[in-house]
Amino acid sequence: MNGGAHKPVLMEEVSAALEPAPGKIIVDGTFGAGGYSRAFLAAGASVVAFDRDPTARRFADGLPADRFRLLEAPFSEMAEELGEAGADGVALDLGVSSMQLDEPDRGFSFMRDGPLDMRMGAAGRTAADLVNEEEPTELARILYVYGEERKSRRIAGAIARRRDQQPFTRTVELAEFIEHALGGRRGAKTHPATRSFQALRIAVNDELGELERGLSAAEHTLKAGGRLAVVTFHSLEDRIVKGFLAVRAGRLGQGSRHRPQVEAVGHPSFDLLFNGAKSPQPLELAANSRSRSAKLRAAVRTSAPVWRDAA
After folding, report:
1. What's 107-205's CATH class?
2. pLDDT 10s digits, 293-308
3. Three-state DSSP class for 115?
4. How far is Cα 41 from Cα 20, in angstroms, rounded to an integer?
5. How many CB atoms lie within 10 A of CB 254?
6. Is 138 helix (H, G, I), strand (E, B) or coil?
7. DSSP for residue 72
8. 68 membership: H or E segment, kind and range
9. What is the mean pLDDT of the chain?
10. Can you tell me whether residue 276 is helix, strand or coil?
11. Which of 111, 130, 108 is nearest to 119 (CA)?
12. Which candidate, 308, 306, 294, places its Cα nearest to that of 241?
């Protein structure tokens, strides 16, 4: 998520992890407003950027045509574009960008009234389609799984009863309805619709599936010694990245009755650059409140073959 047009979250830490330099090819998998790409280009690297949002191209004006290329495509397609071992670094800055949140017509934020859309690209079902068409049980599952909303059945049932008389079309309309269905804010620190809006956005854009495919694509695309840096913003994303890197680095754990032990299917294809995750420093947190939940995990590609379970 970009904290500003030129200063994405954890930029210094991401650059330090990837070490962009002349002669290197870096994939900016989530171009957004171009903050990471500009930093990599300033360090002398060449950049291949991806963004499925067609409006992102306006931020590419002035970037050097001989070292920069922007593709209107999801980052999971990087292996098809660059080929096997075609990149020295991959950066993924997940979630919705600030520019998308700040544009009411995109429908991502319940703080600004707009159409209930939430699509990062130009095609596919909208959030309004999900809210007005899904069976209550499926809608409740979406809210519970992707939003970790404990009152998902209550919300889904209320939505289903209301939509029969009047479909939902606007963001503020849905947010206020969810707030009312849950009995108001009652001193809550976050808006009662926060988890539901996150869930709908993730479902509309298949964000978790795209992340899993993108991590496997990065494994294919990175050269031996190439580096992967991923910035996440909520536990669902971070859990996937943490698990992928732990498995690929050979840190499989002993398993339990709830989570069976993973069987290694190849030699470690990544080495962790540091244990755990890095978070923003106090100065960044003070300057950009949206960075508070950000976590960076990073790893370096080994010379081992791609694991056979990778897509």
Report:
1. mainly alpha
2. 999 999 999 999 999 7
3. strand
4. 8
5. 6
6. helix
7. S
8. strand 68-71
9. 90
10. coil
11. 108
12. 294
**Lookup result for tokens 């690209």:** 121
Q: What pairs with residue 8 in β-bridges?
A: 2
Q: Which two tokens stand for residue 41?
A: 């280009």
H-run or E-run covering 27: strand 25-28
Q: E-strand spans in the chain?
A: 25-28, 46-50, 68-71, 87-93, 222-232, 270-272, 295-301
Instruction: Say which residues have a Cβ less than 8 Å from residue 96's Cβ, sequence separation at least 6.
Output: 1, 108, 120, 201
For residue 156, CA distances in Å to 44, 108, 144 come to 51, 19, 10
Radius of gyration of the chain (CA): 20
Strands 68-71 and 46-50: parallel
Residue 195 Cα distances to 110, 137, 157, 269, angstroms: 11, 17, 16, 35
d(CA 274, CA 190) in angstroms, rounded, equals: 32
Tokens of 16: 């330090």
Give domain 11-99+208-301's CATH number out of 3.10.20.30, 3.40.50.150, 3.30.565.10, 3.50.50.60: 3.40.50.150
Q: How far is 145 from 200, CA to CA, in rounded Å?
A: 10
- Best CA proximity match to 110, nearest among 36, 158, 173, 154: 173
Length of the chain: 311
Q: What percent of the chain has pLDDT over 90?
A: 76
Distances (CA, A) of 81 to 8, 38, 72, 218, 221: 25, 21, 12, 12, 9
pLDDT tens-place string over residues 64-105: 999 999 999 999 999 999 999 999 999 999 977 666 666 767
Query: 20: helix, coil or strand?
Result: coil
Task: Give me the residue label for tokens 């002349």.
Answer: 22
Domain ranges for the chain, please list them: 11-99+208-301, 107-205
Q: What is the pTM of this model?
A: 0.89
Nearest to 57 by CA among 67, 46, 72: 72
